[in-house]
Amino acid sequence: xxxxxxxxxxxxxxxxxxxxxxxxxxxxxxxxxxxxxxxxxxxxxxxxxxxxxxxxxxxxxxxxxxxxxxxxxxxxxxxxxxxxxxxxxxxxxxxxxxxxxxxxxxxxxxxxxxxxxxxxxxxxxxxxxxxxxxxxxxxxxxxxxxxxxxxxxxxxxxxxxxxxxxxxxxxxxxxxxxxxxxxxxxxxxxxxxxxxxxxxxxxxxxxxxxxxxxxxxxxxxxx
Length: 223
Fold this sequence. Notes:
The chain is mostly helical. It folds into two domains: about 1-95, no CATH class; about 130-223. It has eleven helices and two strands, in the order H-H-H-H-H-H-H-H-H-E-E-H-H. It has a two-stranded antiparallel ribbon with strand order 1-2. Helix 4 (about 80-90) packs parallel to helix 6 and helix 7 (about 130-140) runs antiparallel to helix 8 (about 145-155). The protein is elongated, with a radius of gyration of 18 Å. The termini are far apart.
């Protein structure tokens, strides 16, 4: 059973609604839809949710109309809760525009939105997000966001990290603006930091004992 036209139209109608509650319900449902894959009652059982993570036909994708509506909410909403839910709903799409939009939310003025962006990157689990997550762990003003960025790093498979540190590149993070902090260059295939060294630096300089502990824990995983 693929994504029904009725469900798609329902989500689109809710996203276009001026009612905040309707928008939030649609965004939450879309964001949590991947948890339904494989369920007998899932409306998304045969829908490809995210590029290489699935072997289903390219024609069985979530509609780009949904993505465009979500991106519009992300870019225009002044409500941080709406922006946070929009970020989490975008994890089903892995194109450059979407990934760049999520990465930009790492700089959002609201910590809830930044936390959601970190979670979205953790869900995607691509090693090319390591520099961005390292920068968040190093410089975000909120302890919780820094801590979650370190936890997100641990969710990336070791083999993927090794391949990335050897200089691999990914279409997911090509293009767009660069974010820099110290020796860490957060975009593209250049300026690859030594992960263990970067984590050791965070562990030794962060004012939060909790963040320092997580940095040391993550370092042990990758050395």
